Amino acid sequence: MLTIKKPFLLVIGDMTNPRNAKTAFGLRDWARADCLGQLRFAEDAVDLGLPSMTVEQAAAEGAKTAVIGIAPQGGVLPAHWVPILQDVLRAGLDIASGLHSRLKDIPEIADLAATLGRTLHDVRHNTLALPVGNGKPRAGLRLLTVGTDCALGKKYTAMAIASEMKARGLKADFRATGQTGILIAGGGIAIDAVVGDFISGAAEILSPDNDPDHWDIIEGQGAILHPAYAPVTLGLLYGSQPDALVLCDDPLRERLNDFPHVRCPTLQEAMAAYLPLARAANPAARFVGISLNTSAMSESEAFETIIRTAEKTGLACFDPIRTGVKAVVDVLADFTATHPVESKTLKIQ
Fold first, then answer.
1. What is the pLDDT of residues 145-161, one digit of tens each?
2. What's the rounded Cα separation, in Å, for the pair 99 and 103?
3. Domain limits for position 43
4. Using CA atoms, how far apart are residues 219 and 154, in angstroms rounded to an integer?
5. What predicted TM-score, i.e. pTM, was given to this entire model?
6. Among 90, 135, 107, 116, which residue's Cα sits nearest to residue 239?
7. What CATH number corresponds to the domain at position 310?
8. Is 137 helix (H, G, I), strand (E, B) or coil?
9. 118 and 148, same domain (yes or no)
10. Burial category of 7 from C-beta neighbours within 10 Å (exposed 0-12, middle 13-18, buried 19 and up)
11. One domain for residues 68 and 172
């Protein structure tokens, strides 16, 4: 579990692409009470709708930790941010980052933090001794959110489902696999920072044996048909041994985020790619729902798309923000809690 001091100042910097500010949006939406304000370097930077503050104002208002709110391609901290983060440290704040590049590996930041007694949190990196995956069946039930692309709602969907299940008195826990989810939940493993051989083992640790009627709601990463991020998706898929899959999609997205030369797969193409792999790890795996990110649609267009998708796929279809997740939790509530463990034996196809 993490011990990051609150409240947070969310650092947007000069990021102009909302999709690459998903860490900040996630914290705003799921940990709003912990978010004091935002730090933007430019007028055209992403606006979270939180109070805009200077470093000095945030410190005076009681901010304790500046959280790097961006997740750009490659996960590298922009070099021109370093002087501003030094100002953050001088103002008395700690810094938390979910980027691949470590704060502790940047001498100008690490040395100043040590001198001032500030704490640097590189939440994407852990010191656990992770095993390789073993594929052994585990008691309990697991749902994994998967996607047609990155940055389209896998985390939001998983958190909303876990929250709704708990509200109904069902046994469920959200399992964070990315930096934003870890910051929100206070624990987890950033799967995309794990060495390839240990990804499935990390997923097994995240969702261990549990009560037969307990659900681990596992945050998905990447996309199985993505040219860059498919490997992490595959390791998470195998290690999670999901009983249930929810496919997340942006109906308006025609090209992969940051990969304009690659067409987004259709729902049918994605499901056809995911299901055989999921069933290699757990022969009982099946899709139970489609989560659509309709944030860029009008209300009428969104509901028409949701209804049309439900009719086309025969699955519970919803937008976790616009409609809530009742439709898919209804399915999960009826899902048998007595799957024989033997049915989950690893099957090599």
1. 999 999 899 999 999 99
2. 9
3. 8-122
4. 6
5. 0.86
6. 135
7. 3.40.50.300
8. coil
9. no
10. middle
11. no
